[in-house]
Every structure is written in C-alpha cells, then in structure tokens.
Amino acid sequence: MHFSENSAEASRPFLTWQRIIDWGHTHYRDRIFRKDERVPARPGLLYLVNKGAIRLVGAAQSSIVNFDDGESSEPPSDLPEEAFLGFVDAGQPFEIVAQSPFNLQAYAHVDRTEVVWMYWHDLDNWPHFRKEVYESFRYQHQRKLLWLSALGQRRTIERLMNFLTLLIEEYGEPCENGYCLPYLLTHAQIGSAIGSTRVTVTRLMGKLRRQGLISIQEDNLICMPHWETAKNYKEK
Amino acid sequence: MHFSENSAEASRPFLTWQRIIDWGHTHYRDRIFRKDERVPARPGLLYLVNKGAIRLVGAAQSSIVNFDDGESSEPPSDLPEEAFLGFVDAGQPFEIVAQSPFNLQAYAHVDRTEVVWMYWHDLDNWPHFRKEVYESFRYQHQRKLLWLSALGQRRTIERLMNFLTLLIEEYGEPCENGYCLPYLLTHAQIGSAIGSTRVTVTRLMGKLRRQGLISIQEDNLICMPHWETAKNYKEK
What is the ipTM of this complex? Predict the structure, then answer.
C-alpha cells in the first residue's frame, strides 16, 4: 500500500507510513506477536501490519453438530471448525467487524509480526492515509470475490487449484522454479479454506505435484513452477 | 447506504442519493435492465443500484477439464461453472475490477433493475458521497469474510445452512413466519455458491425443511421461520 499525506510525501509514500508507525510507537499502540499468537482485535479499531503477516480465520460460533447429511464419512466434530480466510501482509490494514454467525479472528502467521492500531477517528489527522486504507479494503473486497468464485467450483481439485493460483497470484514471489507462496500453510489450513479435509488435500496436492502444476520447495513452501503453463492450461 | 454531501443534506441522506441519480439521468449514465440481463460493467467505473437488485457471479475463465480427482461421481463439465457471489441491492454500489483467473460479472436479478454509473473521478465532486461508497465496500468486504467462513465448513449441509443464515441476516425481511429472503434463488445457484450440485442442494433443503429450520413460501421464497431458534440451535 502506498501512503501520501502531503505533496512532498506523495512521491515518497514510505514517509507517511513510517510517520504513522512512529506515532504508534510513541502512543503505545504497537505490539509484536509470536507465530500463531492471536491478535486481540476489536471492532472499531483499525490495525496496520508493519512487519510479518496476519492470518485471518473464521470460526463458527459453534458447530451445527446435530446435522446428518447422510453421506459424510466423518462424524461431525465437536470442535468449532476454523476456516482460513487469507493473509494480510506488511504494509496492509485489517479490521475485524462482522461477527455473527462466525467469529472472525486474526493471528500472527509468522514470528515477530508487528501490528500498530488506531481508532478510525484517529484517521481524521491523516485524510489521505484514510483514503489509502479504504482503497486497500476495496482491493481486498475484490480479491475475496475471486476467492468466492474459486470456492463455488464443484470439484475439490478445482477449488484447490484455483485457491492456490489466487494465493500465488496475490502473494507469490519469484523463485528458481516460478512463483512461490512465501508463507507456510498446512494441509489442514488449506482444507479449512476450501471446505475439505487434511487427508483429501494431501491426496490432491500429490496429484497436482505429479502433474507438475505445483512443486514443493525444501522449506515446504508451495510453488507454481510453470506459472505461465498453468495459466495457459486454464485458457485451453 | 446513507449519503451526505453538506450539513443540510447530512440529516436527509436521500437528497444526495437522489441528486446523484438525477445527475445520472441528465448525463445518460443510467439504464434499466431486464431480469437476468448482464450489466456490461467495466473496471474503473462505479455502479449504483437505484432500483431492483444485482446478482454478482464469478465464472472460471475455463474449467480445468482434465483434472480427475478419482472420486467425483460426475464428469467434469465443459461449461464454465458460474458461482453465485451475492446480491447488491438498491442503494448500494458495486464494481467489477479483479478478473484472473475468474471473470466477475453482474446481472440484474429482478426485472427493471436500474443502474447508474460514473467514473471514480466523478466522485471528486462529491467527497462525502465517495466516503459512503468506501464505507459500503468496507462493509461488503466484512460480509464476504463471513461467507468465506461459511464455505470453509467441511460438511455440505453446514455450508448450506450457514450460507442461508448469512443471506437472510443481510437481506431478510420480516414475514409471517420469521424472516424471508426477498430474492428468488434456484437450487443450482445455491449449489454454485457453496461448491455443491443442484441435486444435493435440493436434497439438503428438504432435510432442513423437515427439521423446521427453513420454510418455503408459496412464492418460493426461502424463510427462516424460527430465526431465534436457529440461532440458539447454533449456540448450543
């Protein structure tokens, strides 16, 4: 995200961001989180990720445990299912407002994730910055529409492939073999995003690897080794 | 959405909205669409729904037809699957920006849906209105996070029940038997939203009806007759 507060800073957006982070330090509105530590985000506050990355998660307030769809091979779980909803990386804002019937929550996805927070009305001091925040949410909204498109696909392998494509399109970094998702995701987390199970994701990831559509780096990061090929594949 | 452009209009937001609609009429920036007619929305333009309702849809640019997950009972479809992504009702803005690997599209969901459009820079004339548009997208983004939470549920019946709950929570109107979704949705459209099929949705809707969790009005609208009960049910 780019920030600009006056004409001098407009050409150097880093200055405004840094000024707001400094403001956060001065006003004790910053905190560093350990990997997988929950950020106690509250409605009405705006959060800025200065370092690291945030993982957004939605948890059903409690499972509808009595449903029996007559076909599921697994018993309903007593634990609330947490769904992975995406990343917010450094330089981006997030907020947690909507709740029912799910609790949205934010976790530090990597160690030493630094978050600064403020009230929305603090933004009155930085009107151009507020616009940048709005623009970021506008962008995030459009990305979520694409996610929903992916999750509407009927076949699990299509949901999985489209989900990975969207993640790497948004967060991917160039690597030796194409583009690489810089964040670790467990198969259970992927399953929680696409409405599937860890076991199924493991099986289908194996299939995608054998087809050469994805590869896994030594550090377990997911890559799309033939990015262009994958795109062409879909354009067939 | 509430609009306010100056202090006099701030207390009567309808005035600003009406003024912008009038501006649209004057500048030939309005059009009335038939039910299921596509709105030819382009990136960079902002659309306001003045009457009726818009249905957002995501279509895979083309299906990944060669995948075989080894368990699907249905053959891969040659037709691109369109996923239902939600409604935009009167008084709300929408836009279509993001594309790859899905085409987002907008359709009139009801007959005589009226849409006014403008360039984003036209909003320079109405800074407060622009803020309201941003606030609406901020809200829509939060709602989509809830949708993603619903679609991450592993069991189809839970995805279905949470999906319907979210829709009725957002758009529901009081009726004799609780709250009613004022828009028709086919079982195929519901299936396209929750990653399932028309056949499965029909079967599971029957189950939810027999359990008394939903009811269907004579005009085929979906109701939650025991809204509070449904909520309590989840809070068990």
Answer: 0.86
Q: CA-based diameter of chain A, in Å?
A: 64
Sort strands A30-33 and A93-94 into parallel, antiparallel or unpaired.
unpaired
Chain A residues within an 8 Å CB radius of B137? 134, 137-138, 141
Establish if A83 touches chain B: CB-CB under 8 angstroms.
yes
Quick: pLDDT tens for A43-95: 989 999 999 999 999 987 654 445 555 555 444 554 557 899 999 999 999 99
* N-to-C CA span, chain A: 34
Residues of chain B by 3-state class (helix, strand, coil), percent to 5: 40, 25, 35
**pLDDT single digits (tens) B203-222:** 999 999 999 999 999 889 99
Q: Domains (ranges, CATH) in chain A?
A: 1-151 (2.60.120.10), 154-236 (1.10.10.10)
Record: contact B61-A140, CB cut-off 8 A: no
Torsional sign, CA A165, A168, A171, A174: negative
**Interface contact flag, B69 A157, Cβ < 8 Å:** yes
Distance CA B23, CA A109 (A): 47
Phi-psi region of A44 (alpha: psi -120 to 50; beta: other; left: phi over 0): left
Confirm if B2 and B91 have CB atoms less than 8 A apart: no
Q: Where are the beta strands (DSSP E) in A95-186?
A: 102-108, 113-119, 173-175, 178-180
Sign of the alpha-carbon torsion through A89, A95, A101, A103: positive
Note whether A44 contacts B: Cβ–Cβ < 8 A.
no
Q: Taking CB atoms and an 8 Å cutoff, what residues of chain B touch A152?
A: 58, 81-85, 151, 192-195
For residue A60, the surrounding DSSP H or E stretch is strand A53-60
A141–B145: do the CB atoms touch at under 8 Å?
no
Phi, psi of B87 (to 5 degrees): -105, 155
Q: Give me chain B's average pLDDT, please.
A: 85
User: Which residues of chain A from 124 to 163 reach within 8 Å of chain B, CB to CB?
Assistant: 131, 134, 137-159, 161-162
